[in-house]
What we know:
- The protein is about 30% helix and about 25% strand.
- By secondary structure, the protein is an alpha+beta fold.
- The strands form four sheets. A five-stranded antiparallel beta sheet has the order 8-7-9-14-15.
- Bound molecules: magnesium ion (2 copies).
- One magnesium ion binds next to loops.
Amino acid sequence: MIELKNANQLVLMRNAGRIVAETLALVREYAKPGVTTLELDRIAEEYIRAQGAIPAFKGYNGFPATLCTSINEQVVHGIPGLRSLESGDIISIDCGALIEGYFGDAAVTLPIGDVGEDLQKLLRVTEESLMLGIAQAKIGNRLYDVSNAVQTHVEANNFSIVRDYVGHGIGRAMHEDPQIPNFGKPGRGPRLEVGMALAIEPMVNMGTYEVQTLKDRWTVVTKDNRPSAHFEHTVAITENGLEILTRC
Ligand code: MG
Ligand code: MG
């Protein structure tokens, strides 16, 4: 069941979204060659707690950290640790926060130092696919219109879209109905209506869309070890149109 949010709930979701956006903006400033992913995680956790919020991922199904930090061939759910970022890496930073009972969730993939043109294109196309998907999240459209817009743009650029992980509704729980695949035929799925809050999050691979999970039971990597990028926003469909709650 898709839970619709009223105007009061939307106020709380805006606040959660703002904290996530600000956290990502802060982490971006520190994401330079030489920094460890654990240092980025500490910066994020400190900021979220200073806002009176709770890091939403920490403890979620036993996940040990505030951020998911996924480097290069890692797709999502990378665990922060002592690995230092190097020039030429790309890193997906995924962040969630909980405040006053409501969740925000967003991700960006950042280039570290000098990154090759092929990786720059991967980042650009992934972010564009997110924005094209978001543009379809309007009243009267169907959910898979979002999915199809993402897939079409990704595949037109000869990249592939991950199948095994999807976006989700969000609100009083981090993961609510509906699931939001990043692929599929348009014109299907539930009709989009005022009050829906959605976390749309394409994961785009340079090679095969197939992924696998490492022995740490969290880190998802591409099967062919080629790079992957991930962007996510929490959005709400309001009476005044679409609102991106996690925009910086
Ligand atoms: Mg999410
Ligand atoms: Mg996320």
